[in-house]
Amino acid sequence: MSGLWAVTVREIRERRFVLLAALALGLLPPVGTLVPAARRLAGGDAGEPLALLLGLAFPTAVALGLGASVICRDVAERRLGFYFARPISGLALWGGKMAAVVVLAGASGLLVSLPLVALGALGFTESFDSLLPSVLPFAAGLALIAAAAHAGGTMLRSRSGLLPLDLVLFLSAGFAFAAAAWRVVDAGAPGVFLRVGPTLTAGLLAALLGAGAAQVVFGRADARRGHLFLSATLWASLLSGIAGLHIALSWALSVAPGDVARDQLAGFNAAPRGDSFALDSGRSDRLGYRPVFLVNAATGGFVRLGSAETLSRLIFSLDGRRAAWIRYLGPRPPLFVALLDGPQPVVSAIPRAVGPHAQDHRWPISLSGDGRRLLVGRGSGADVLETATGRLVAETSLAGVSQGSFDSANRVRLYRRLNEPGSRGDLALVAWNLESGETRETGRVEGARTVNGLQGNRLLVSTWNGAVETRDADSGARLDTLVPAGSSHRPHWEGRFLEDGRVSLIAGDETGWRLRVFSADGDALADVPIGRAVSAFIAGESRSGDVVVGVLSASFVTRTLFVDVSAGGVRAQEEGLLPDMGALWSASDPRLSPAPGSLGTRLFSRSDGALVDRDPTSGAQRILVPGRAKREE
Amino acid sequence: MSAAQPEEVPVIAVEGLSVRYGRTPALEDVSLSVPRGSIYALLGRNGAGKSSLVRCVLGQQKPTRGRARLFGEDAWSSRRRAMTRVGVVPEEPDAPPEMTARDLAAFCRRLYPVWDAASVDARLHRFGVPQDVPFARLSKGQKGAVMLALCLAPRPDVLVLDDPTLGLDVVARRALYDELITDLADRGVTVLVTTHDLSGIEGLASRVAMLRGSRLVLDEEQEDLKTRFRRLRPSSVGRAHEPGAWAPFDTVTIRHRDWGDEAVVSNFDDARLEAFRATRGLSDVEVGSLSLEEIFLAVVGEAEATS
Question: pLDDT of A363-379, one tens digit each?
Fold first, then answer.
């Protein structure tokens, strides 16, 4: 320990000019602010940006410069023998010199900022404590830079035949790491890198420090032997670390639906028809990789689409045979379509990227009924593409498109938010003829309403400010007010059409919630109490006229009610089950709601975490994704 | 009984030591031992492997084959512990150039269990070394003096001097040897010294080893060496270069002079001299002693030139 301390102190003493230089440089910003010319040049506030720049650049330069010379120069000038002729261990020598570099670099960063800190220009004098947690990462960063500079300096100064080999191994390690990075990007799992980033950085630091230590401990004053040990340790560590990273990624990225923990309620979303559903895994123990799966419930076949935060809403076609989504990757996010006819979903990229405008969840995407065409909204309009070829079928430059759906393969209905003065965010209803390219405003709905459902392209139901109304789908004219604004029983979630045109909604107050059903003409048909709840929502019809209502109580106990709207009462009730909320998060296309008896009305999240397909007639449950208890076994 | 007594263990021992740099051999199968209390001169031409051997002995370099021992322990693996008892003056003074003699002394004293600060001051004063001048700005002799002062301050049991007189003027060289004689001889310090200053070391070294072409060709007491290496000048030998002309002596060099022939032999003794006289019928053979430099030239220099 005395050797380590002696070397550290010696190095700091010898290079104390660095600290003086830092202090002198630190005085430049405050002095600069006093010089009118300098102040004008930097827009009147020259000090702070310069201080921040110096505060980062100066210690980095110190770490680089000293790291590349503090031992390499001694070796190259044959001066390391001075230390080895004394009772100092190689480890103490390496540790002492590196510690001195980190201390000098860190202290120089502090000193270069000190004058402005003292003047309060950087604004953190009062919250200096908040900087303390950054000290360790800052020191580790400086150590990383210093150790990397040392490794590079050693290789270059040794002039040994190992240098070309170093270059080859450096490129190999770079390619191998880039390949790992690409796997993560390709899997849509950037979060994995955030999770493993600290470990990778620590591993890199350990490899660099270990390599330097091996050089000094085993190479001692012999430059070539030291280079050999440094290179052998560094490249062996890095390449095996990268190999380990690939293995870890293989494990993480191969996560299956059965491996994920689904603690979130909105975890699945079924196609309106067919056997397919999307599963947002919610949480994963595999390096935090949280992919969305597209699953065939009948066969169990699945594909991973990438992590949820990198994907747009996933949209199904009405026939349930196609799904589409955008992956937010790079400046031109790619579009994807999945064919759902087979036992396993088949994903292909639509050979056309969308522009940066699509990186916004507000813009809609919607598939035509047969899934062959895709509507992609953007801030300044919308495009319609062929999903198979990516061919642009039509484009419009209408601004503010917030929702859209296909009436037919050649006709699209757009809902456009108007931001004209005094419009209160009125919604314009626009018919878009894809053959002629013509767009025509057919009507307007006053207020910032959203369209929650379409019935036969004739009626729409909208919700705004607590009022639920049916309107003419073309003109926007109000037909009936199902719940007036300001009603004591304010609606929770939006009103939705049932298959036969009736409108259902959940409404209530603190005393209790109710399922209310209206005819298309606004006549109240049923008013079924469902008790007090934190949340309740309609998940479609298990069969025509049999509404599925999911209820989450204050104690987070889940249950599902099966309500016979004709009889006006609860037909059955299942504790511990919660249905699919997918229809609620497909709001960009108001037509999308599960057909009666479709998978979307049969999928339930069980309180043990399992995802089950419940037979609407017998109530028998088929487990699609095992719950926690099963996995713990 | 336990292991050998410390007195019986050579302070420095080298066993089958080989060092190669790539395909170039620097030392091949060298074995030697330095007895406690001796002044051991390791001689050889430039590139003979002296410095490689010293680095191996100091645990600074790992040999390709064989090993070096210090105080009976492996020099490579026990270097740090051994260095508390070893003082080193390297071939090139390698102290950090920015440090003054005072800084260097302050740095070194933290590392040793014993440190004679007064001796450092006294030596530096005696050699006229300014204590506040950076090491890089000192003269070659002053640098050597600083290194010597630093290496003697911890009162080492062993002193390793790797060509310490290289580049020193006569006065500095003389002062260095005076230090060795006056300070070390009485304390029984073992000294391993490599040098090209053969006349300077001649009066000091108790034992001499010579390296030639990376191999050890000679390792014995200086006294014995001088006894067996002699110059013979017979009145006449006739066909001096013919095989057996100088029997029973082993000749190292044979020269023709104006006045006759001259040979350096490596196995001189009185019995052989009598036999030589009797065989040749020589009445007078002039027998001369050789200096260490002459022996070195005979063994290393001329032999290499001949080969």
Answer: 678 899 899 999 988 77
Min Cα distance B164 → chain A (Å) is: 15
Query: Which range of residues forms the domain containing residue A245?
Result: 159-254
Contact residues on chain A for B61, CB-CB shorter than 8 A = 220-222, 225
Which residues in chain A are closer than 8 Å to B55, comparing Cβ atoms? 81, 221-222
Residues of B with CB under 8 A from a CB of A: 55, 58-62, 79-81, 83-84, 86, 88, 90, 92, 94-99, 103, 107-108, 110-112, 151
Task: For residue A74, count other CB atoms closer than 10 A to its CB.
Answer: 21
A125 and A28 belong to one structural domain: yes
Would you state the pLDDT for residue A266? 45
**Chain B: residue whose CA lies nearest to A87:** B80
pLDDT of residue A345: 95
Last residue of a domain, one of A186, A220, A254: A254
Q: Looking at the structure, do residues A227 and A95 belong to the same domain, yes or no? A: no
- Which chain B residues touch A229 with a CB distance below 8 Å? none
**How confident is the model over A603-619, as pLDDT tens digits?**
988 888 888 899 988 98
Q: Show residues of chain B in contact with A13, CB under 8 Å.
A: 103
SS3 of A80, please?
Answer: coil
A197 touches chain B (CB under 8 A): no
Question: Residue A16: CB partners within 8 Å, gap ≥ 6?
Answer: none
| Intervals of chain B under pLDDT 50 | 1-5, 304-307
Distance CA A251, CA A223 (A): 41
Q: What is the mean pLDDT of residues A222-245?
A: 94
Determine the pLDDT at residue B78.
95
What are the boundaries of each domain within chain B?
6-224, 230-289
Q: How far is Cα of residue A485 from the mean position of the Cα atoms in its chain? A: 37
Residue A332, token pair as written in the block: 């031109």
Confidence of residue A493 (pLDDT cuts 50, 70, 90): low
Residue A203 lies in a domain: yes
Q: Do B98 and A14 touch (CB under 8 A)?
A: yes
Looking at the structure, do residues A93 and A192 belong to the same domain, yes or no?
A: no
Do A100 and A62 lie in one domain? The reply is yes
The reply to whether A18 falls in a domain is yes
A123, A5: one domain: yes
Question: Closest to B80 (Cβ–Cβ): which among A74, A88, A222?
Answer: A88
Query: Residue B134 carries which DSSP code?
Result: B
pLDDT at res. B4: 44
> Within a domain: residue A30?
yes
Q: Do A237 and A190 fall within a single domain?
A: yes
Q: A74 contacts in B (CB within 8 Å)?
A: 96
- Chain B interface test: which of A70, A84, A159, A217 (most B C-beta within 10 Å): A84
Give pLDDT, residue B170.
83
Residues A4 and A152 in one domain: yes
pLDDT given at position A270: 86
H/E stretch holding A251 reads helix A223-253
| Domain final residue pick, A123, A156, A189 | A156
Q: Which of B27, B65, B31 is nearest to B49 (CA)?
A: B27
In the beta sheet, which residues pair with residue B53? none
Q: Do B83 and A89 touch (CB under 8 A)?
A: no
How many structural domains are present in chain A?
2
Put simply, whether A5 touches B (Cβ < 8 Å) is yes
User: In A, residues 220-249, which contact B (CB 8 Å cutoff)?
Assistant: 220-222, 225
Range name among A17-21, A147-151, A363-367, A396-400 with the lowest pLDDT average: A363-367
pLDDT at A588: 60
Q: What is the pLDDT of residues A506-527, one digit of tens each?
A: 887 777 888 888 887 888 888 8
Whole-number Å distance between alpha carbons of A246 and B78:
41
Query: B6-224 has which fold?
Result: Rossmann fold (3.40.50)
CA nearest to A376, candidates A429, A392, A388 = A392
Q: Are residues A163 and A98 in the same domain?
A: no
- The stretch A247-260 carries a mean pLDDT of 87
Cα–Cα dist A374/A317, whole Å: 9
DSSP one-letter code for A333: P
Say yes or no: A16 contacts chain B, CB-CB below 8 A: no
In a domain, A218, yes or no: yes
Q: Name the residue facing B96 among A79, A89, A222 (closest C-beta).
A: A79
Per-residue model confidence as pLDDT tens digits over B209-244 = 999 989 999 999 999 999 999 999 887 656 656 677
